[in-house]
Amino acid sequence: MTMARIIFHIDMDAFFAAIEELDNPALRGKPVVVGADPKGGRGRGVVSTANYEARKYGIRSAMPISEAYRRCPDAVFLPVRGERYHQVSRQIMSLLKEYTPLVEPVSIDEAYLDMTHSPKLFGPPEEVAREIKRRIRETTGGLTASVGVGPNKLVAKIASDLQKPDGLVIVPEDQVRQFLWPLPIGHLWGVGKRTEPVLEGMGIRTIGDLARYPQDELVRRFGSWGYQLWELAQGRDDRPVTPVWKAKSISQEKTFESDVDDPEVMDATILELADGVTRQLRDEGVQGRTITLKIRLEDFSTFTRSQSLEVPTDRFADISRIALELFHRFDRRGQKVRLLGVGMSNFERGMKQLTFLDQLGDRDDRVDRVIDLVRKKFGESAIRRAITTAGRRPKRRGGS
Ligand SMILES: [Mg+2]
Q1: Does the pLDDT of residue 351 top 60, yes or no?
Q2: CA–centroid distance, residue 11 to ligand 1 (Å)
Q3: Is 129 exposed, middle or buried (0-12, 13-18, 19+ CB in 10 A)?
């Protein structure tokens, strides 16, 4: 049996305008339009965000500012303060990453979370969703988010939009059809202003109409797009939540206080660095294929040695074994070692998800993950791998 996924879609309400109100409480209750020409003119630019007061006058995103001004001359028109919005966005995204490494930001104020295997999801999704909303409010000083929860991205996204602002809509898997089918087709992915009238011309007004339409006829008319559209109308959408992964590599290195000749010290250091890399991979929810060892000798000559794996990994056992092999094969010609580094690159996006203990396959994995969990709960010093400190004084972890 495959387990239904639990996908959250988090969408901030009137984000830019809400931040302006937050920073200037005198604006509350007034129509606020963000997107004005910073030089003060009202003739140029388009509306970036209108708060809910301004929307009562029919002001919408992407509308020319001149049109917004015509509809509500008394609104407060403000320029975009991108710096500030990004700062708040970063706060929110890092908060979301506390709940799962599988966070996919869609825009500055919107993200998908795959909560299926999140250790944070102990109770019903509703509890966690409420907690996320509350914590966003507290962290930002008062901003509200709307949250949709469903078995896939399509349902979660539509759900988050239905009770805005400050909404929470949860759609269990067995209610997807009841939820989707009465909605106008405009709610579906890829059905916009141009395609809507075409579908309506075929007698398709709701998602249910589309779902009951013969799929082969849609394919004949629209090609693969018609096929996909029909699948979506059935409530089927298996697109994964894919975190944006910008970093090209993760590495840790350590410069010794004095150059080292003792092979045991070097082995222990490599294990410690591999441990640090393993944990960083876990935190980011990625796996890598290529392991790199860096060595700087006492004369400052620097070498790297790499080995790639067939299958990406985030396991300590793999990373440490290969890093040690690379090191043992390296001929340092009698020189002492000044610096060691262990790195991982060649990341895989279709990663193995953070699974919980009972779903884990092999022992190495399980041990690594238990260690991660204990450290998260009780702090850094709670567990150190026995081997890294065996008979030695603890070393400081190298920076990355
Ligand atoms: Mg939004």
Answers
A1: no
A2: 5
A3: buried
pLDDT one-digit tens code per residue, 139-187: 999 999 999 999 999 999 999 999 999 999 999 999 999 999 999 999 9
- Catalytic, out of 20, 21, 104, 110: 110
Task: List, for residues 291-348, the tens digit of each pLDDT value.
Answer: 999 999 999 899 999 998 877 888 899 999 999 999 999 999 999 999 999 999 887 6
| Cα 165 to middle of ligand 1, angstroms | 9
Q: In sequence order, what are the residues at sequence separation of 6 or more whose Cβ sits closer than 8 angstroms to the Cβ of residue 29?
A: 53
110 is catalytic: yes
What's the pLDDT score for residue 193?
Answer: 78
* Short-list 185, 229, 187, 234, CA closest to 211: 234
Question: What is the CA(49)–ligand 1 centre distance, in A?
Answer: 9
Domains of the chain, CATH where assigned: 15-82 (3.40.1170.60), 181-233 (1.10.150.20), 249-389 (3.30.1490.100)
Instruction: Return the closest-CA partner of residue 22 out of 165, 142, 145.
Output: 142
pLDDT score recorded for residue 240: 87
Q: What are phi and psi of 362, to 5 degrees?
A: -115, 165
Structural contact between residues 344 and 319, judged by C-beta atoms closer than 8 angstroms: yes
Report residue 304 as tokens.
């790297």
Record the tokens describing residue 359, joined without a space.
């779903």
User: DSSP per residue over 222-281, as a string?
Assistant: HTHHHHHHHHHHTT---PPP------SEEEEEEEEEEEE--HHHHHHHHHHHHHHHHHHH
Neighbours of ion ligand 1 (CB under 5 A): 11-12, 109
